[in-house]
Design brief:
Elements lengths: L1 E11 L6 E11 L5 E12 L5 E7 L7 H18 L4
Antiparallel strand pairs: 1-2, 2-3, 3-4
Length: 87
């Protein structure tokens, strides 16, 4: 499985400034032909030690083992944040 992109990213209002919540769609590619879109939700939280903690969840379960899919999703989210591509 490959994570092609995260699209339709919408930022949710959060009452605290160090926590950003988002809703989006993850486009997953299972083989050369099959791609599926799954709804996701994720939170980026700035920790007191200057790090960023990512919490992510699939709102629609992917057709793939969940732990590797979540790891792939979190890595991609961190890369998007580092490039400044999140709203």
């Amino acid at each position: 499985m490959e994570l092609v992109e995260i699209r339709n990213i919408v930022r949710k209002d959060a009452p605290v400034l160090y926590r950003r919540s988002f809703a989006a769609e993850a486009v997953l590619k299972y083989d050369d032909v099959t791609t599926r879109s799954r709804r996701i939700s994720f939170i980026l939280e700035h920790t007191p030690t200057s790090g960023i903690q990512v919490q992510a969840e699939f709102l629609e379960i992917p057709d793939y083992p969940l732990v590797p899919a979540l790891r792939m999703l979190k890595d991609h989210i961190l890369r998007l944040d580092a490039k400044g591509l999140l709203p």
